[in-house]
Structure formats: structure tokens, C-alpha cells
Amino acid sequence: MKTIARFSLTTLAASITFAALTTTAQAQEQWTMTSTWPDNLDLVQIDQHWVELVNKLAGDEVQINFRSGGTLMPGTEVFDATETGSIEAAGDWPGYWAGLNPAFSPLATTTSLFNGVDYLNWIQQWGGRELYEEIYGQYNMMYLPYGITNNESGFMGRTPIASIADLEGKRLRLSGRDQGRVLEQLGGSQVTLAGGEVYQAIERGVIDAGEFSTPGVDFKAGFAEVADNWATPGWHQSASVFGVMINMDAWNALSEETQEKLRIAADATMAWSLAWSEYESNAATQQFIDAGVTINQFSEEDLARIQDVTNQVIVQGACENPDHAKVYHSMITYLQEYATWRDVSVPFNMSRTMNNLPSLEEIEACL
């Protein structure tokens, strides 16, 4: 009798163990994820960092197979592929989708407005995260912002640009709808090129100057080999945000606990990316100097003029699209509210001190 009982208990334990293993195997999701960034652009490291964290933190329920940009499909196709569920996820820069909805532009970057810490504050505490989810949600996707870089290098090329007067008649590679509008009002002409094409465009004189990303990314892309001049600061992109688009069906198939782990990995990657980018940019700036590149900085008067034009462009865009207005309304509200503490803590404040913002009242009139 004892032998039979022992056998029954052993059989039961084995059945439970098998069932548990089977459930685990069935529960584990296998995701395919790609990016807008190929291996030769350093920004792909932000995507890879998040994927590695997710696979460590949530590997019992989801494993992500990451493929660099261009290995599965062109970077321009990752949005549609994620929306339709052809792939489960893709790393991106939201500004690439501004043709679908102009609200994607400020979700990616701002002209002469936010710096990296502003984006961090706004995403984490002032309603930014919810706006990413709302806008991407219109396209059947969850969105987790997980990367921030501070202001971009500026314009690099063979033609010296030392002031906004030098922008007159120049053909410049520039990404972003709002950025292009500002440039045009300053007398320049926007040329749209993929990041991987900027090097050759400078080398061959197709453009007078171009921009792509931060100094760390730009140096590794070889810009010091073809550019003699560098116009800074990068007012056109005062900071940038990157993240992951996740097909909503794939997201909903995860447990709440696993979803939270993906969010935790995103927040950790966001903090890492800002420090990583600044470290790389500092080292690369010295490398550009050592390579003999001449650095010209826009004057305070020029930057004030750029701010005036930027404010006009932001209000113009807000009155053209309610989503665009909603995002900028939230951003400017943050800057106004944060000024209460920010401006009395100078010089140890963590954000830009600004006294010339786009008109919140004019944007509200367009909501």
C-alpha cells in the first residue's frame, strides 16, 4: 500500500513538474525586433542595450531576437511592419514618421527648446510618457521611450558657417519638419537624406553642410574625414528621443508583470543613454579638434533670432494639427511650471533657463 502511495505521489509530482515546464515553454514569447539604425551607426547601441536588459529581466516570458537596421527590411519600412504585426517590435526615432502625424516631430526632438534633462523630466513626471503612448496608439502600437541624447553636433561640411547670415542660400542636410521650416526662414534650403548618405553628400559637394547626430556618432560615421568646418551648437535638435515601437497585440499578450519589466528596462536604458552619449560626445569633440576641424559657434544674437523663428514655427504647426498642438502645449507648460524651481537654483539647475517661449495662449487657441 505504501509502495502504491509513493508511486502515486511521485507520478503526481512528475506531472506537475511537466505541466509547469510546458506552461513556461508555451508562455515564452519569441519576438523579432529590428531598428532604423544599421550596425555602422552608433545609435544602434541604444536599441541593443534595451534588448539585452529585457532578455535578462523578462527572459522567462519573452525573448527578443534583435536584427540591426537594414538586415530584415529598409529602415523606412519598420513602422508599417510593426503596426501590422509582421514583426513584434522596432527601435526608432519618432521624427521619421512626421509625414503621418506632425506630432511625431516634437516627440523626437525640438528646435531650440528642450535639452536632454527636459525630455527626461517631461517623460517621467510631466505627462510626456502618456503622449507617446497616445500618438503611437493611433497606429496599433505601444511605445516605450528608452533613449535620450543631448543637443546634436550642428552642421559639418567644407563650407564655413559662422553665423545665421552664412545660412543664406546654403543647401543643408537637415532632418525634421519643424527644423526644415526654421532653416527656410533663416535663408537655407533643407535637403533630406538618410543618415548613411550624409558622408558622401558632404564629400561630393552635394550639400554645403550636413548634420546627423551627436559628436560621438558623427565622428564614428567618418565626418572628420570630409568636413573642414563645424557650426555649433546644434540648435536644430536641442535634444533627441529614441524608443521602441511594439505591436499592440504582442504587447497585450504579455502579463502585466512582464510589461512592467519592459518599462523598467526602458527607464534604465534612458538614463544610461544620456550619460553614454555625453561621454562619447566629449571624447569625439577632442577628436574633431585633433583632426583639424574648425569650430564656429553661433552668437547669442543669432541664437535669439533662431528662438524667435522657432516660436513662430511651433505656433504655426500647432494651428495645423491638434496632436501637434497637444504635444507642444504639454512641453511649454512643463517649461513654465518647472521655472518655479529651475530659475532660483541657477547655476546648479538641471535645465535650460528660458525667457522667450512659444506663446502658450496662441497654441491653446488652436487646440
Task: Indicate the topology.
Blueprint: H1 2-27, E1 29-35, H2 44-57, E2 62-66, H3 78-84, E3 89-92, H4 104-108, H5 116-125, H6 128-137, E4 141-152, E5 155-157, E6 171-173, H7 177-185, E7 189-191, H8 198-203, E8 209-210, H9 215-220, H10 223-226, E9 229-232, E10 234-247, H11 248-252, H12 256-290, E11 294-297, H13 300-318, H14 322-342, H15 360-366
Parallel strand pairs: 1-2, 1-3, 6-7, 6-8, 9-11
Antiparallel strand pairs: 3-10, 4-10, 5-8, 5-9
Plain-language structure description:
Strand 6 (171-173), helix 7 (177-185) and strand 7 (189-191) form a beta-alpha-beta unit. By secondary structure, this protein is of the alpha/beta class. It folds into two domains: 29-151 and 239-279, D-Maltodextrin-Binding Protein, domain 2, CATH 3.40.190; 155-238 and 291-315, D-Maltodextrin-Binding Protein, domain 2 (3-Layer(aba) Sandwich), CATH 3.40.190. The protein starts with a helix and ends with a helix. The strands form two sheets. It has a six-stranded mixed β-sheet. The protein has a five-stranded mixed β-sheet with strand order 2-1-3-10-4, with helices on both faces. Residues 1-26 have low confidence and may be disordered. It has helices spanning 2-27, 44-57, 78-84, 104-108, 116-125, 128-137, 177-185, 198-203, 215-220, 223-226, 248-252, 256-290, 300-318, 322-342, 360-366, and strands spanning 29-35, 62-66, 89-92, 141-152, 155-157, 171-173, 189-191, 209-210, 229-232, 234-247, 294-297. The longest helix is centred in the C-terminal third of the chain and has 35 residues, at 256-290. Helix 2 (44-57) packs antiparallel against helix 12. Residues 1-27 form the signal peptide.
